[in-house]
Amino acid sequence: MAERGRNRGRRGGGRAHGSSSRRPRRVRRGEPRSRLRRGLSVSRSSGAAKVLGLSTTRRAAVVAIVVCALAFTIAVPLRTYLSQRADVAEQERRQAELRGQVAQLEQRHAELSDPAQVEAEARRRLGYVMPGETPYMVQLPEDDRGNPPQQDKEAPPRDSWYENLWNSVKRQ
User: InterPro entries from the entry (predicted)?
Assistant: First the structure.
């Protein structure tokens, strides 16, 4: 009985020392255990390959094709998303610019609602005078508004487009 109690405390349960419930022990002198374990792991991992009939090279090729397909599937929507994000940023910048212009125009509208401001603008920009006033125009040397622009001494001949084309072909 003492022997039975001692064996129960071990892994094997109530069985005799040296026996295992999981697999029988092979006793071969020429074959090491690592070779057996390697053979078992290879046969377990290649079970899926045997079912599909694929070698490791073919499995790697299939995995590469699947990864490429996923990359191409993701690339187009990602490119679209990034371009739309850039468009949104551009439109927000444009919107801020237009809001600034609207603010300036509203300020200008408020200025021009005053009749005195309108009269001053008419006098300054358009040269209007009230009846009975004498206008004076003072021209300074730096002010070239009154002088007509100088034209070139030799103005190019104004021929029709087909004459210009023919003359350019004829010169070459």
Answer: FtsL/DivIC
3-state secondary structure 22-40: CCCCCCCCCCCHHHHHHHH
Tens of pLDDT, residues 63-76: 999 999 999 999 99
Q: Are 128 and 122 in contact (CB under 8 A)?
A: yes
pTM of the model: 0.37
Q: Measured at the alpha carbon of residue 96, what is the angle toward residues 90 and 98, in degrees to the nearest 5?
A: 100
Q: Read out DSSP for 63-81?
A: HHHHHHHHHHHHHHHHHHH
The number of CA neighbours under 13 Å toward the Cβ of 10 is 14
* CB proximity list for 21: less than 8 A, separation 6 or greater: 12, 13, 15
